[in-house]
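Course assignment 3, question 2. Fill in each field.
Student: A.L.
Task: Predict the tertiary structure for the chain below.
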Amino acid sequence: QVRLVESGGGLVQPGQSLRLHCAASGVILSFNAMAWYRQRPGQQRELVAMMGNGNIIYGDSVQGRFTISGEVTENTVELQMDDLNVEDTAVYFCYANDLFNHHWGQGTQVTVSS
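Answer field:
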């Protein structure tokens, strides 16, 4: 069974940075893509950044501040988050898909507060 485990969340002040990490285990089928989503309080889950098949896309609200990196073929993905603001407060989820399934991590809390 595929398991995605996130790490690196925490509490920071506005303008500071955090780096999230996700590692997968139990992978049998190669991933097509890996991504980060987030769910802010009272809102739906939204795409933050995705990489796969040579492409990278970002959500509009994080473009220019967040950077996704890693190796899909090695089942790891990271998210460098710079210039964080209070609107970035959310639970951040790691995501991966293969030929048949979508996989989600349990999430890691990121809180930006002064």
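Instructor remarks: Residues 52 and 78 are 13 Å apart (CA to CA). DSSP finds no helices and eleven strands in the chain.
Grade: pending
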